[in-house]
Amino acid sequence: MTAREEILARIRAANGPAREPTEIDAAYAAIPRDYRRAHHDSEQRDDIVALFAERAADYRATVEPVPEADLPAAIARAVTGKARLIVPDGVPEAWLAELPSATTIVRDEPPLSARELDAIDGVVTGCAVAIAETGTIILDHGPAQGRRALTLVPDFHLVVVRADHVAPDIADALARLDPSRPHTLISGPSATSDIELIRVEGVHGPRNLHILVSG
Amino acid sequence: MADRGQDTRFPGMFPSGNVRSMRIGLFVTCLTDTLYPETGKAVVTLLERLGHRVDFPAGQACCGQMHFNTGYRREAARMARGLAAAFRGHEAVVTPSASCAAMIREYYPALAGETGDAGFARDVAELAPRVHDLATFLTDVIGVTDVGAYFPHKVTYHPTCHSLRMMRVGDAPYRLLKAVRGLDLVDLPDATTCCGFGGTFSLKNPDISAAMCADKVAAIRQSRAEVVTAGDNSCLMHIGGALSRLRAGVRAMHLAEILASTGDAGAATGGTP
Amino acid sequence: MTTPAGATPAPNGSMPTYLGMPSFPSAARTAVADSQLRRNLTHATTAIRAKRANVVRELDDWEELRQAGKAIKEHTLANLDTYLLRLEESVTSAGGHVHWARDAAEANAIAIDLIKRKNADKAVKSKSMTTQEAGLNEALAQNGIQAIETDLAELIVQLGDDLPSHILVPAIHKNRAEIGDLFRRTISEAPGDLADDPPSLTATARAHLRGEFLDAKVGISGANFAVADTGSLVVVESEGNGRMCLTLPDTLISFVGIEKIIPSWRDLEVFLALLPRSSTAERMNPYTTIWSGVANADGPREFHLILLDNGRTATLADETGRQALRCIRCSACLNVCPVYERAGGHAYGSPYPGPIGAILSPQLRGMTSPADASLPFASSLCGACYEVCPVAINIPEALVHLRARAVQSQPHYPERIFFSLAASILSSPGRMAFAQRLGSLAGSAVARRKGRIRRLPPPLSAWTDTRDAPAPPPESFRAWWSRTRGGAR
What we know:
The complex is a heterotrimer of chains A (215), B (273) and C (489).
Chain A: H1 3-15, H2 21-29, H3 45-58, E1 62-66, H4 71-78, E2 84-86, E3 104-106, H5 114-118, E4 122-125, E5 129-131, E6 136-139, E7 156-162, E8 166-167, H6 170-175, E9 183-186, E10 191-192, E11 200-201, E12 208-214
Chain B: E1 23-26, H1 30-35, H2 37-49, E2 53-55, H3 65-70, H4 73-86, E3 92-95, H5 98-115, H6 118-127, E4 131-133, H7 134-142, E5 154-157, H8 161-166, H9 172-178, E6 184-186, H10 201-204, H11 206-223, E7 227-230, H12 233-245, E8 251-254, H13 255-260
Parallel strand pairs in B: 1-2, 1-3, 3-4, 5-6, 5-7, 7-8
Chain C: H1 4-7, H2 24-33, H3 35-57, H4 62-78, H5 80-93, E1 97-101, H6 104-117, E2 122-125, H7 129-134, H8 136-142, E3 146-149, H9 152-159, H10 176-186, H11 198-215, E4 218-221, E5 225-227, E6 232-237, H12 241-247, E7 251-257, E8 261-262, H13 268-279, E9 287-292, E10 302-308, H14 312-316, H15 332-336, H16 338-343, H17 354-365, H18 370-374, H19 384-388, H20 395-409, H21 413-426, H22 429-446, E11 452-453, H23 461-464, E12 469-470, H24 477-485
Parallel strand pairs in C: 1-10, 2-3, 2-4, 4-7, 5-8, 7-10
Antiparallel strand pairs in C: 5-6, 6-9, 11-12
């Protein structure tokens, strides 16, 4: 017997014979879910966006509300002092219009090695979805977000969250995603509680997370 | 619930409406029976003072909790069968031990199932929902918080784990204590932390048990109470044993004895575990 | 099917008992005497308890979430074969490879073979309880492969040649000063004047591991959840070391216990609400990585999922004990446990300490050793663990159930005789009354001071070592009733 066959046989010995898939799916559908899939009224857009900003800031991320038109200036301010920025495909050119002349824009073309990424000072991205309830940004690493390493290795991550990105709760955020893609959920800068269970920001991921909430 | 009462000797003592006199079976528990008879007497005094008739079915012995919790289920089932049979036909069964009450409510059905004894299962089905811990029996079933007690001492209350998490007595004991005349109820720091008794845990893991008890005793001392009370003599035996060893000058006393106390003879009955 | 021993022929898992581990009570005795350990644990657990309570209170549907989490896991366990096959299919069609391992040795051998085929002599590891359980690091070392622990607490444990003592924070038994000493001794990147504050210590770990991440060929991880219908693996973490291990190496190997599976993508809405709040007491942990197989030009080009049994099917065969398989490794039960707080994690002799460890380890390993048989007794049954468990594992119920199995598998004859005798007295009102009369007589003889007994013979001396015992009163309640109320009903 292969390990696979043996494990399945042990499970069936413990559980009794396997049920029909339709029967299992029906039992799954009948699982009581009395929790609230929404803790906030999605009609109250302003409140939802404000809640996102407040909760993201709780993690000691820098959070700035910015009118759409002021994004280029806000981005320029936020990256001051960063010599080399990597910018993934799909980031609107307009966002970069006011960058200081001292800042060099690097593209991931051809893809940079991890060592090369480590020499980059920061990354500017958009996001796929955000969650108000938990102050979380979700990247699906599609347009304007880049592959996963781009938002991991550089020490500074500037992310633009549009108001329409913000879902009130975890449930509606997950429902907006395509599960076949890789995802990164980000709630504040990297942190650890491994020493005396006291939270300290800044370990291996970007130590600075700057969020511009636009619109 | 209850705070309505005529202007009698014990205002507020009797609930409004007509709570009729009940015939209550007292499940005294083996520990209280053997080592703390004053607690049993206090329950009788208290319930009779509230106008109820108390029965002590002589066929009762031990609920089997110690055996059950130590892994001796077969022996526990034997004891459980006897106890369930002893209380046939009582509309309410009251016990001064939340943990023995919880044993019956939570674990008797499973034990009866394991034995496959239909008569036992029937007795358990009848008994389990009728077993009450004294405090919630008073507040929720009879509907009284002021039982007419007088106890002029500084008291702190330890919510025992099984009263808190299995019988879910909530704030019932606090409400009862607050209504006692003369009683000064003081907060117990970290009240909901276990005292470390845990039945045979206290013998099988004596070092951890003693360390937990030491912290409980320190909290009691910090409360500056003269008396620590609880709804279970087992935990009180543990806490009181440590207080006594340390000559801490704090008495451990079952809630029933405080509630039965009226200042004359009552105050002195203290079985003081 | 109440005892798995009879129900399945399958052997239990091979999880190394920490070598020469004494049984819980004696290990705990040493720990209780260590006042520094006590202070470290009390300090850490007290803080997290209050934070967890606050962040849980924030959700007014917590209990409903908890019940849904429980129901989803129960349903999955009841149909585990079907869901494992679904997971296998979805991971495979997303470009991953699925391996099955009956026990730790088999899982480790698969990993070693994969790493050797990549000509790698080291691998970066993100925190994984399952690899701890499997003893993977030791197996890799025997094959000349260095496992580099990258989670801060795991790194502290690895550098100190220590053992983990907490599920979430394996180095919880060490305080900042102790960690500072360790880092100054063992990390070459540590500045000469490294201070003991957590930010400086954390920065040192970052500098130390940076190069390892950037050059890693093989990453090893566990997973918090494996989603059957989408093939998604989910790793919930804080530091970003998980993201590094899951993203940068070309080859990724994930060790996943077969109970980590959940049926569907939407179930994450429940578990991503339950886990961070219970675990680190946050609304959401800093980073969660979700991936399915391999992605085009993003992350590892080769992904291997090793599904591990190692005693889980034996646990599944125990109707009461199987609820331990619902565990999502949050460690809330450890943080509220008064026994854990005083005994520390090492006393449990397993990577899984605390209340959940006391019901999980003896089931995964079987109760053949005195150490494992002592674990179900390592609890006062106070129930604080059950109260906080995000998937409502009734730990006290499971403990009591496993005690009965321990009494069967590791009988202690003097105790058995005592309990038999006690049962025959305590089940009979007549014998009880007789014993009470004897007790009253004896009590009056031994009680020195106001009804107090200060010393009893073994095993009851375990009581009187620190507590007085009450002397039996002159008259039992039963006798009083009979005398004053005329006996029976």
